[in-house]
Amino acid sequence: EKRNKMNKYLLAAVVLLGLVFAFEAKRVAFVLHFEGHCEHNVTYCESKALSQRINSVITPNNGPETTFTKSIGSHAIFSQHLRVQNGGRFFDRGNMTFGIHLDRQHSIYFRSFGVGHYAKQGDRYVAGSTIDVVDGGGVFQHVRGLASILSVYHPDGKLENNVWGELEVPNHVELQ
Question: How far apart are CA 118 and CA 111, in angstroms?
């Protein structure tokens, strides 16, 4: 009987371990440089990133230097709805879509993870925030994750977004 009990515990442990591996998520890290525009009242912004290679080096004379080189490939669209408040604070929500797909969008949906902050630097505004990825569509269905955004808003309405993120994609999703 003791051996039978031990076999049941062993079987339960194997099943539990199998469930853990079955539901483990794939991690997808990304860094993208977007360029776009904002409406004049800065409540909606949209920017686009082409496929790119980002190279950052630390030089002995000049410190950090980064170059963005366009690559052959698809693109991403970053859409933000902003709720700007006094005191240099804002909240945002929106989505990012990846690639050109006629039958379905590969998207992530996000909202603010806390308060974002902005400040005037010369004639432009610089903003930083963290977003909470709460869901997605296409290959990113049921995705979770976080991303940090550094934005520069120019007086002519031009927008630059640098986005660093990590997504957890459910294991059952096939990433191409």
Answer: 17
Q: Which of 13-22, 30-39, 50-59, 116-125 has the lowest mean pLDDT?
A: 13-22
- What are the percentages of helix, strand and coil residues in the chain, rounded to 5? 15, 65, 20
Asked whether the beta carbons of 133 and 112 are under 8 A apart, the reply is no
Neighbouring C-beta atoms of residue 32, cutoff 10 Å: 23
**pLDDT, tens digit, for every residue of 82-91?**
999 999 999 9
Contacts of 71 (CB under 8 A, 6+ apart): 50, 51, 52, 53
pTM of the model: 0.77
In this structure, how many other beta carbons lie within 10 angstroms of the beta carbon of residue 133? 22
Cα–Cα distance for residue pair 97/76, rounded to 1 Å: 5
